[in-house]
Amino acid sequence: MTDAGVFPFKTDRAATERARLLRQIADVLDLPLTAFTHPPATETGEEAASDECAAVIKAFSRIRDPKMREFCLKMLESFAERG
Fold first, then answer.
1. Rounded distance, CA 74 to CA 50, Å?
2. What angle (nearest 5°) sits at the alpha carbon of residue 45, between those of residues 39 and 50?
3. Which of 45, 5, 3 is nearest to 23 (CA)?
4. Please, are residues 9 and 15 in contact by the beta-carbon 8 Å criterion?
5. CA 8 – CA 81 distance, rounded (Å)
6. Helix axis angle, 66-82 to 50-61, nearest 10°
7. Per-residue pLDDT tens over the stretch 27-67
8. Dihedrals φ, ψ of 57, to 5°?
9. CA-CA distance, 57 to 37, in Å (whole number)?
């Protein structure tokens, strides 16, 4: 599966790495890649907005303690299971 034309990056090594990492994040979050590149058509309030997802990722990436990251991930997963 390709996403040609989705990334406005130049074809340099750093851009390729950014695209690869963004794809991995989208896969882990079970989101389409367009969730990061195009705003959603409508916000119902029931699903997380892309800016909320980005804020969670940004905060999570700043946690240096592996045990704390694991705790946070388990907490988020338990919240997701509750709906």
1. 21
2. 30
3. 3
4. yes
5. 35
6. 150
7. 888 778 777 776 655 556 566 777 888 888 888 889 999 99
8. -65, -45
9. 15
